[in-house]
């Protein structure tokens, strides 16, 4: 799976940087899963379809009644068609400089939330729907006042959301420019019981697979593949011992593509098949 550098892949002139940028995104495939290097903070105003995003320490799914404000970074996201024949959203990117200028103008110095939540969920309402309708790359691309108009749209939506969500949103905006590196161990251990592949966890750590393996072995004194496999199988055993779940209910969630491979790995580790628990 190739890495998509966003929003650069949408620029007509890739070398030209922008402080604010709008892109109308449409898709007709059933499912598109992408590795995304998001280099700017971004609103994803979802209109038709569904989106699921895996972050370093959590994941979030939204539908067409919601939008997301995403912090820049490395994410895995999946875009899905809903009942319609197309997935459609509007992406609104903005630089840290624009956000810093806005916060200096309209807010006080506040301490950002300490929780490492890289997204803010926005519940779409009539005002936001109207705003989304007015936000189109075609509206601005041929205007001599493009940058000025987009700056006003940027301030408009932030002021509206500040009014709608109050201090919660204000804290989140400050968190977007708060410099903090996600600890390696937190990312790894938040995904012990996920179904993400090793290379996908490495991507969320902003590392190549080879660098991730070296770093992991130095940190945990064990190869990551074996360590994660043992942890996930132990979790599977605990779930099965609870008595409410069958092997067919859990094998996908702990990283196995089919029930047969899960059963073999489980028996090799514990000496009995998962159906015997």
Layout of helices and strands:
Layout: E1 3-6, E2 20-27, E3 31-38, E4 41-48, E5 50-54, E6 59-62, E7 66-70, E8 73-80, E9 87-94, H1 96-106, E10 119-123, H2 126-134, H3 137-140, H4 146-165, H5 167-176, H6 184-190, H7 198-204, H8 209-220, H9 224-241, H10 247-250, H11 259-270
Parallel strand pairs: 1-3
Antiparallel strand pairs: 2-9, 3-8, 4-7, 4-9, 5-6, 5-8, 7-10
Describe the structure.
By secondary structure, the chain is an alpha+beta fold. It folds into two domains: 3-176, Jelly Rolls (Sandwich); 184-276, Homeodomain-like (Arc Repressor Mutant, subunit A), CATH 1.10.10. The chain is 41% helix and 23% strand. It contains eleven helices and ten strands. The strands form two sheets. It has a five-stranded mixed sheet with strand order 1-3-8-5-6, covered by helices on one side. Strands 2-9-4-7-10 form a five-stranded antiparallel sheet. β5 (50-54) and β6 form a beta hairpin. α7 (198-204) packs across α8 (209-220). The longest helix has 20 residues, at 146-165. It starts with a strand and ends in a 7-residue tail after the last helix. The mean pLDDT is 86.
């Amino acid at each position: 799976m190739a890495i998509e550098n966003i929003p650069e892949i949408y620029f007509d002139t890739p070398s030209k940087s922008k402080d604010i940028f709008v892109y109308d995104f449409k898709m007709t495939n059933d499912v598109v899963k992408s590795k995304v290097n998001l280099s700017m903070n971004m609103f994803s105003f979802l209109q038709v379809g569904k989106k699921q995003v895996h972050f370093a320490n959590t994941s979030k799914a939204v539908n067409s009644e919601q939008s997301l404000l995403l912090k820049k970074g490395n994410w895995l996201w999946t875009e899905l068609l809903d009942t319609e024949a197309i997935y459609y959203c509007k992406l609104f990117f903005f630089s840290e400089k624009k956000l810093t200028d806005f916060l200096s103008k309209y807010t006080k110095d506040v301490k950002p939330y300490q929780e490492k939540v890289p997204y803010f969920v926005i519940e779409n309402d009539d005002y936001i729907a109207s705003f989304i309708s007015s936000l189109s790359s075609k509206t601005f691309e041929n205007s001599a006042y493009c940058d000025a108009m987009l700056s006003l749209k940027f301030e408009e939506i932030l002021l509206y959301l500040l009014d709608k969500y109050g201090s919660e949103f204000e804290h989140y905006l400050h968190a977007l420019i708060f410099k903090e590196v996600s600890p390696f161990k937190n990312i790894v251990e938040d995904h012990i019981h996920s179904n993400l592949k090793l290379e996908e966890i490495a991507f969320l750590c902003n590392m190549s697979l080879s660098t991730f393996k070296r770093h992991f072995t130095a940190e945990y004194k064990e190869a990551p593949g074996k360590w994660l496999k043992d942890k996930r199988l132990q979790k599977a055993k605990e779930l099965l011992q609870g008595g409410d779940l069958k092997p067919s209910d859990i094998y996908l969630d702990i990283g196995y593509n089919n029930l047969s491979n899960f059963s073999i790995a489980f028996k090799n580790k514990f000496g009995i098949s998962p159906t015997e628990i």
